Amino acid sequence: MSLEESFSNLRVDHQDNQFTAHDHYESVNSNDLADVTQLFQELSDRLQARTIIKDPNFDLFEGTHSLEVNNKKLDSSLIDLTEEEIHFDCNKPYGFGAKEGEWDQIDYVSAILDRLMRLVVCWLNDYQTLPTTLLSCKYMEYFLQKWTLPPLDNVNVLNTGDPIYDDVLGSCITGIGYFTKFARELLKAGVIFEEEDLNFNAMGLDLYLGLPNKVKTLKYINKGLETLSLIHDDKRTILLTNILKLTSCLVKLEDHILFYSSTTQHLDEMIDLAQKLYDEPELDKAYPVGSFSMEIQKRLANQFPPKKLVEPSSNYDGFIVLANDIKLILKIAQANSSLEIIQFANFFNKIRQLHVIARAIFSLFVMRDDRSVLGTFTLHDFLQAHVLPIANNLTKISPQIENALDPILQDCISVLFEWYQNSSQNTCRYRQGYNRQILLWDSVQAQLENVLTQLGSSSRLVVNQSGTAQENNFIESYASWAFVMKLNAMIEFTLKGFDLDCYKPFESYSLFWYVYYLCEYLQNGLNIIETGIQRTISDIHALNKRMKKLKAGEKKDRLRDQYHKLMELDMPGLQDRLKYMQYERNKCKITQSLCLVEVVQFGILASYNVITNKNPANSKFVNDELIYKLRFKPFSSIGSPETPTFTLSQETLQKFMFKESEFSSRIEESLKFMKGQLNHIEITIGEILRYVESDDEGESMMTGTRLVKEEASEYFTQLKKSSELLKANSKRIVKVLGPKPVQGLENKFTVMLSTSTGASRFFPILEVVERKPRGNGREI
Amino acid sequence: MGGIEYKSLDINSIRHFNELKKLIDIDLSEPYSIYVYRYFLNQWPELCFLAFDSGSSDDDVPIGCIICKSEMHRNSRMRGYIGMLAVEKSYRGRGIAKKLVEIAINKMIDDGCDEIMLEAEVENKVALQLYEGMGFIRMKRMFRYYLNEGDAFKLILPLKDKSCIRSTFLMNG
Ligand SMILES: CC(C)(COP(=O)(O)OP(=O)(O)OC[C@H]1O[C@@H](n2cnc3c(N)ncnc32)[C@H](O)[C@@H]1OP(=O)(O)O)[C@@H](O)C(=O)NCCC(=O)NCCS
Question: Which of residues 71-100 of B touch A (CB under 8 A)?
């Protein structure tokens, strides 16, 4: 028979989508098989060592994930399975009834579900893969397999005849399956990322066609609970009841993105149940042999190397993290103002990376399918709401200019959305997001300034004089806003690099100095905005004076009405905006002073000769100027503020260094200066903390952090701790290195960037450490 | 003990191929498939260097190797890439890796690379120290980059100005 003929005769039956190895092979008649060995051998003989057979679209990335036949570490078909694993039958009620000393069905079901529940935590909280966690459960696979077909009338896919299996185990698996579908929806929405945030290698079992809907699933779980209520076995029925209830809490999570529900009842229940399950002593009974296995990796479409199963620990507290983090993000629904939304996004995920499900819900909960924000703002409103805390809102703009601005405002909306999406990303992506945003904000700012320039030259032909001034103010507000957002993005990107341990001590000088320099611009930007707000306030007061000068009459009445309206509607908002600006300026001042102290300390350490701002690597490939430029690459295209050149950065360090002759006096001065700076910011931080903790009770500042009080408090408390550590470091430097630099210090000491618990990771301390010889005689 | 000799790969030597694969696989929790090796070695054999101990009884077994490639990155700059590097345990700490990296970088400089890039696990302190000691800097951190769950740093050694300009602007220019 020719090869072609054999292939055409080969009839592989995969009607039910099932390719179980054993029964698949059994069903193929050996006469139908074609022997291709010789053909392959002939072809491979003709291959040259250099030849690679690959699809043109196959790239290295895919290559690093490629598998290899017959390589035990890379070929999942070589996984060894036990007889029990191969022949495990989901429709058999494992267990021996209530015979004394034997394991009962309820023992087995408890052990299976207890393990499965803990595997949910391994999958989500510990970022493990699906096949090594949930899919390792034969029942999970069996159900998902059934759901690849359209729904059956009966939600129950098990048929063991034992209600402990059919109702209790069956409903729990259905509930968990339902939840996995929700997790897959989150991934599909593109707000979190496959592999790094969540693994969803479902091996083709993610069709969910036959999955019952939510109502049926919850009803099924209730049936399971009823079954349990009829059994008189305290220990295990309590455990199983708690597990089933916890499952129904998981099923309900989708409500937050389907109906934008901000109800937290099921989350509180989840916390309570998880705590109970966590407190339970571990089960002494094992799950039936074969019910958890690597088998699925061997049998189904698997693009990954074999991976050992995850052994879950006693980790029910992972559900508490999940529930608390979702509760935290739902608080955004209580926002009373755009400022509270902004501050929420600023702080909720800043210091501690939230649970992946909570981060995903955040994005979808805030930016809704109907293209609204939190269901209350249109995109346009939302943009304005953003600019409003800092804009002059008395402006009426002409339709012509509105049209001209529209595409730019659309761009503003896109960047703003990116900013929001970025706030919920994992900690590494978060920094990269800012890297991209720097360009986007820069472009938006440039476009707005361009319109301003054009208005200045030709607009008088279209609009009258006073209109122009108002419109200029309006556009200026947007431009200043974009500038401030850009500077914040640049500062955040740079400082986040310290948090992620991306910099070496020698680089810290130029980076801290750069942030100090950016803060200078930010402070100016904030001042301009504040002046704008004050101008608007004065305009309103001027209206009052103008009105008083008028004689009684219609005009005076009109002006009085306008004045009262403005005083009533706009003035409180304007006052709040001024207070918010005060907060922003204080925050900027804190960052700036911390950076300044860092560079002063660097200067001192450089004067002692224990560090330089040049790469200490002793290699011919080192080119300090190129390294500097590479580090500043994200900012290289930014015109305003101009990126300091390498030479400038070198020169500035000289200013912070002392000559030997003036060492004693200058170090004295510097220590005093730093102490003054740090004392001052500690007072400011204390002030901010007071406002944060009292929900902005007071006249001078507004933080808008009511909904993220704890997170904002923690952020500023950490800054305070860093300030204290910097103070201590000033003293320590002199103590360790002596009153004056002496020869050879650089051989004895080096400098490390160190962080301590409770302190800000954005401002590590330049700590002097003794050089120690490495194990092999070399130094670290 | 004899000296260490450094040679570029002879693509036709199946023995060297198998030995270097062994050398690298031993340190990986999940090994690369043969495809990955072939992908690098067949396309860039001149960017693979092996170290041999001339004093050893089997002086044809490599005791260290580096595998690289160089390609146009985003149509804007020539990027050299260090894919794998390993030195046999008993030979570590003698400057062999450093020498291999140096040879490879020199070759990539000769080939006109604008920068050299690689990824290293955050936990691989030895590798980080090795590369940073040659002028590489950490450009970004990648969350759970490796299948074995660790974060990684992307490191770059800039060789020319082109390395320091965002590729968006190089492409436009
Ligand atoms: C990384 C590896 C290749 C280094 O090989 P090696 O020949 O021992 O390294 P060298 O002797 O050339 O040392 C070069 C530099 O590495 C660093 N280094 C080497 N051993 C070190 C150690 N034990 N601790 C800290 N740093 C070390 C040092 O910076 C050293 O330079 P120095 O001696 O001038 O200080 C080797 O350890 C290895 O094969 N590791 C497993 C595979 C691996 O991790 N590869 C890198 C993947 S990116």
Answer: 93
The whole-angstrom distance between B96's CA and the closest CA on chain A is 14
For each of the domains in chain B, give its residue range(s) and CATH number, in order of start.
4-169 (3.40.630.30)
Ligand 1 center to B89 CA (angstroms): 10
Q: Is B35 on the interface with A (CB under 8 A)?
A: yes
With beta carbons under 8 A apart, name residues in chain A contacting B132.
Answer: 504, 617
How far away, in angstroms, is A605 Cα from ligand 1 center? 29
Q: What count of Cα atoms within 13 Å lies in the side-chain half-sphere of residue A283?
A: 24
B35 with A634: Cβ contact below 8 A = no
Which of the residue ranges A49-53, A299-303, B133-137 has the most confident prediction, judged by mean pLDDT? B133-137
Pairing of the two strands B152-158 and B115-121: antiparallel
pLDDT of residue A372: 83
Which residues of chain A make contact with B159, given a CB cutoff of 8 A? 621, 623, 626
Which run of H or E residues covers position A573?
Answer: helix A571-607
Q: State the distance from the centre of ligand 1 to the C-alpha of B66, rounded, in angstroms.
A: 13
Give the span between the Cα atoms of A771 and A222, in whole angstroms.
65
Q: Which of A71, A621, A630 sits opposite B163 (nearest CB)?
A: A630
Confidence class for position A392, pLDDT limits 50, 70, 90: very low
pLDDT in tens, A685-705: 999 999 999 999 999 999 999
pTM to 2 decimal places? 0.92
Looking at residue A618, what DSSP letter applies?
A: -
Would you tell me how many other CB atoms lie within 10 Å of the CB of residue A703?
29
